[in-house]
Amino acid sequence: MATPPSAPPAPTAGLPPELADATRDETSLRRFLQGLPGVDQVGVEQRAAGLATRSIKKASKLWAIDMAISMVDLTTLEGADTHGKVRSLCAKARRPDPERPDVPQVAAVCVYPDLVATAVEALKGAPVGVASVATAFPSGRAARDIKLADVKDAVDAGASEVDMVIDRGAFLSGRYGQVFEEIQAVKAACGDAHLKVILETGELATYDNVRRASWLGLLAGGDFIKTSTGKVSPAATLPVAHVMLQAVHDWHKTTGELRGVKPAGGIRTTKDAIRYLVAVHEVAGPQWLDPKLFRFGASSLLNDLLMQRRTQLEGHYSGPDYVTVD
């Protein structure tokens, strides 16, 4: 039976005292989250815009493209998904450009729970993770026992990563303890699988809420905080990513732990991806330029990265006929 929403969150072991105190009860958690410094909206948007204008040299651009490819969670989350489509996606994940074996493999393939077993079989022997959305994705509107069953189905089928959605209604109503408990319960249900906590920032309305939701996800044990499901507009934006990258940077300063960030939705071009990599380096730090700590949730992005990679190496633009199109 799900814990009543009014129950306080359980203390989190291993946290510094100032953070452990925040998880002691509902009141302490609310006081901590509401006491976080407000986000300077003008400042964060100006900084994001400024970093987005930076250019990089040709040699660095090729490195950035390969880094971005290695960070892609190649995703298909449509009602019309089939086992055949997932197998094709996994083949692309294994070898993104069939004519160029030096292209890095992507980080993971992300699918619905009922297609996890197909992805696991198709990726057998490859260093590519299998991620699954869960917890009544994308709405998150289900009873907790149903959400946890969703997670169990994915993990039992072999998912190495789980992308959960928070209850935005509970969060926006100030029921932080309920959201905290649910993330903790999902984390426990994940076992050895990594947990990415989707905030659905397009529904959170303010940067202050994004900061609070980021810290809530980290306090509750999320290995990654993720912007969006990709089903709500706006999805990922650079200013929102800045707020989340600052959160994981500050978390590391306070706890010594490294947690990841995953922007998802609306990132379609190499130029977009490089802008995010610049933000990662400047806001969180160079340590986060690693697929273990930064991912792109994307479907079409990989195609553009592959075309731009060929352009860098061959000196002319390669069109979509030269890469597989999803």
Automatic annotation (TrEMBL):
GO molecular function, one term: deoxyribose-phosphate aldolase activity
Regions of compositional bias (Pro residues) in chain numbering: 1-11
InterPro entries linked: Aldolase_TIM, DeoC, DeoC/FbaB/LacD_aldolase
Region Disordered, residue ranges: 1-24
SMART domains: DeoC
Pathway stated in the Swiss-Prot or TrEMBL entry: Carbohydrate degradation; 2-deoxy-D-ribose 1-phosphate degradation; D-glyceraldehyde 3-phosphate and acetaldehyde from 2-deoxy-alpha-D-ribose 1-phosphate: step 2/2
This protein's UniProt keywords: Lyase, Schiff base
E.C. number: 4.1.2.4
Recorded catalytic activity of this chain's protein: 2-deoxy-D-ribose 5-phosphate = D-glyceraldehyde 3-phosphate + acetaldehyde
Enzyme class label: lyase
Signal peptide segment: none
Family, as annotated: Belongs to the DeoC/FbaB aldolase family. DeoC type 2 subfamily.
NCBIfam families named in the record: deoC
Name used for this protein in its record: Deoxyribose-phosphate aldolase
